[in-house]
Design brief:
Keywords: Cell membrane, Membrane, Transmembrane, Transmembrane helix, Transport. It is found in: Cell membrane. One of its GO terms (cellular component) is plasma membrane. The chain has about 375 residues and is mainly α. The chain folds into two domains: about 1-175, MFS general substrate transporter like domains (Growth Hormone, Chain: A, Up-down Bundle); about 195-380, MFS general substrate transporter like domains (Growth Hormone, Chain: A), CATH 1.20.1250.20. It contains 15 helices and no strands. Helix 10 packs antiparallel against helix 15, helix 11 packs antiparallel against helix 12 and helix 11 packs parallel to helix 13 (about 295-320). The protein is globular, with a radius of gyration of 20 Å.
Length: about 375
């Protein structure tokens, strides 16, 4: 079951990144502008966030399996329409629907794990799932570039449709994890009020903040590192690719290690370790930016923060989902939406100042300190 859930969790990264190399070709083929074509990314991301918020609480009421199969069908159909889209307007609308379907798949994956496991067992399963979500954003642009080279941008979406077909088959054979006796009852308004009720659980709110803002550390690095390392520090594009790949490997290895040791130490201890590394890496980067910016120092600092992010994501998710038992879909939805809201917030902040390294380090440090503080409060209140 875990392998199937992990596969479904890659829908978002592949839907976001696989067609990025084809954006200039899409602009030319559909006769539009770069800024309008960028809205196809925005539409997908908004769909990812809203899809989770709408479908998460609903899955607590109707179950996971039926909703998962519907989401994969919508993904498949949206991919086909994107491949055939005659104009950019329809393309943007359908990308929103594709994003909503992808977000639903990711949200349901977390929820299904929470239905079957808690504590260290849940953290172990979530770490395994996050190995796939860490690798997918690295592979997706490469695969997309190869596919577009063999065909065109529409071929990329035919491949995404094929991925949707595989995910549908996987979804059909996955078991229902939320038995009828444990489903939420009442009207839809009651179900959504139950989601809002999670904001009255202080420990959950703290872990939600630690998860979302902690992710902001990593996304600040993703948003600003290309400019900082290549334009300011003189790293070649090949060198940057190697550094980025190294961070991806760090994410994978850390999640593998976390899955092996979480049963011994528990998610709370490993969350604390992750937050310590987030703060250490970010503050050290800020000192480097202020005192003596150098490429090796920047690489080491961001590498430490990346490892901290990996420990934060899996363990904090497990702690938050433990507190949302009985409404795991709602809890998973809030985690996912918080992650996308943070990503959308920190990306423009990283580019506000002329000194890209200093600005990136400042945003990372603020996010790291807030996440660590939220984690401390969450552990005390949980």
């Amino acid at each position: 079951m875990l392998a199937g859930i992990a596969l479904l969790s890659t829908a978002g990264p592949f839907g976001t990144d696989m067609y990025l190399p084809s954006l200039p070709e899409i602009t030319r083929d559909l006769g539009t502008t770069d800024s309008v074509t960028q809205l196809t990314i925005t539409g997908f991301m908004v769909g990812m966030a809203l899809g989770q918020l709408v479908m998460g609480p609903l899955s607590d009421r109707v179950g996971r399996h039926r909703m998962l199969t519907v989401a994969t069908v919508v993904w498949l159909a949206a991919s086909v329409v994107c491949a055939l889209a005659p104009g950019v307007g329809l393309f943007i609308v359908v990308r929103f629907l594709q994003g909503a379907a992808g977000g639903t798949c990711v949200m349901l994956g977390r929820s299904m794990i929470a239905d079957r496991a808690t504590g260290s067992a849940a953290a172990k399963a979530l770490s395994t799932m996050m190995i796939f979500t860490a690798v997918a954003p690295i592979l997706a642009p490469v695969v997309g570039g190869v596919v577009a080279g063999l065909g065109d941008w529409r071929t990329v979406f035919w491949v995404l449709a094929a991925v949707g077909a595989v995910e549908f088959v996987v979804a059909v054979f996955l078991p229902e994890t939320l038995v009828k006796e444990k489903r939420a009852s009442g009207s839809l308004s009651v179900v959504y009020r139950r989601m809002a009720g999670l904001f009255r659980v202080p420990a959950f709110v703290c872990h939600l903040a630690a998860f979302a803002v902690g992710f902001g550390v990593f996304f600040s690095f993703v948003s600003g590192s290309s400019f900082v390392m290549q334009e300011e520090l003189g790293l070649s594009s090949t060198g940057f690719s190697l550094v980025f790949a190294g961070n991806a490997v760090a994410l994978v290895v850390t999640n593998l290690v976390n899955a092996r040791i979480v049963g011994r130490f528990g998610p709370a201890v490993l969350q604390r370790t992750g937050h310590a590394m987030l703060v250490t890496g970010s503050v050290a980067l800020l000192v480097v930016a202020l005192v003596d910016p150098s490429l090796p120092a920047v690489v080491v600092c961001t590498f430490i923060a990346t490892i901290g992010n990996a420990l934060n994501m899996g363990n904090t998710t497990a702690l938050a989902m433990d507190l949302s038992q009985g409404r795991a879909g709602a809890g998973s939805a809030l985690l996912g939406a918080g992650q996308f809201i943070t990503a959308g917030t920190v990306a423009p902040l990283v580019g506000l100042m002329d000194d890209g390294l200093l600005n990136m380090a400042l945003v990372m440090t603020v996010c790291a300190v807030v996440a660590a503080g939220a984690g401390v409060l969450g552990r005390r209140r949980g």
